[in-house]
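Fold this sequence, please.
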Amino acid sequence: FEVYSRQQRPDFWGMREFYSTVRVINAELRRKEAASMVLEPGVLMKTVLRNYGGRPSSELEAVVQEFFRQCGMSSTKVPRPTARDLIEENLQEPEARHLMLLTRNNAALQLLFDSGLLDHEHAEVLFGSTFRGDQGDVAVASMLQSIKAMMRRPIVLVLVHCDSLYESLYDLLNQHYMEYGGQRYVRIAHGSSSRQCPIHHLFRVVVITEVGDAYHRLAPPLLNRFEKQLFSREALFGEDDHRALGFLTRFVAALARDAAVAE
């Protein structure tokens, strides 16, 4: 309740984040022997970072500290997975919530492939349009047909600028599946019609959106369906890269000050 009530963007995190946190912790404990079923700090850290991502580091840090305080633990010296690690774990877990990556200028799309998280053999990218004229029934129906074909394969589907599809993909993004004869199905809707479509058990969805859209425009019920992570080039930096970035930042700031003085 403390985390929910104090978040700076109302309902950016909801009850699904809490339920998913509990589910992951229970799964980790079940894998242990009965005599050692103790929640480890590393498991708590990883679980919180996965389910409460997507916000600036200062806000995320407050969430981490609240969870550790409530569990009677200290977060000091507990290793913290990188954004890349958290994304990779999500993609490798078939029952995890689908993933939303918050980025700027669609940078996350290239980063997914550059970092080796995705490869073109096991991933497809679907681009929507931000132009109103390209979001009519015909365009939506065409993209839905493509998605229905992709869902039959064990791939990751990356959606970029596909806001016009989210309503039709409500059950898919909510993971409201049904199974019959060993085959999984999900309802895909368009207008007043809908049908159950086959979907592979390993099919995953990644939605790429702009940080500003996630913080100010997208509806909370949509946000809450996903695990969310901020993903930028900086997320892939090592220690040397961060030191170089710090040096360049200080150099440019000093250069700007000198130029201002000279004027």
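The mean pLDDT is 88. Strands lie at 99-103, 123-127, 156-160, 177-180, 183-190, 193-199, 204-210, 227-230.
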